[in-house]
Predict the 3D structure of the following.
Amino acid sequence: MLAPDLPPVAALAVAVLAVLGSAVALVGALGLLRLKTFYDRVHPPTLSTSLGLFCIVLASIVTFSVLGSRLVIHEVLLFFFVTMTLPVSMMLLARAALFRDRVEAFDKQLAAEVRAAAQQEAADLAVAQAEAAALAELDAGPAHDDDAAYGSE
Amino acid sequence: MSQAALATALVVAQTMLALALCLCAYRLIRGPRAQDRVTAIDALYMNALLSIVLVGIRTGSQLYFEAALIIALAGFASTSAVAKFLMRGEVIE
């Protein structure tokens, strides 16, 4: 198995940091899998990008500093870059999801209103037709009788 | 001795990261809506980045750090672009 040849203390530190960072990342992925709604699921992946990345970057710094016998800290760049950019993209994503949910709710409400209005109109039309039929019957009835009355005279 | 212990610890760490990648992939395939899938792919590339840094530690090579930096850059750009697409229906207006 491949691993850098480090002195025992540094090897222990690197091992602990790597396992800790990976465990935190695994917990984040588990949260992404298990939580119920999207707004809950936005949060857990940030676990792996904050503490998980921090631990693994620290392990990398220790490894390369010990291997090169000088301080190697350009991995800090990775941590800073991710820490700066990730909240921005996550916030954009959450706002997009909020926008989509609102549009969907609005569409649903609009469809319900249109359906209710159509039903109301149909009911009104039925009432009007019934009234017209009753009126026609009322008009036709006496007129017929009148005709009969005139005819008999 | 310490080298073997370190190798074992790195194997354990990489296995956990691979498991995390599988969970993210499951959410990516399953995830009921588009925003869930985008969150899943964001977590996916972040875990891949951690895994690549671990490979760099294992081989003692600085090359992997640059790969990880490029993954972070591309991932941020793509996630922002897709979020904007979900919001507006187009990326560049």
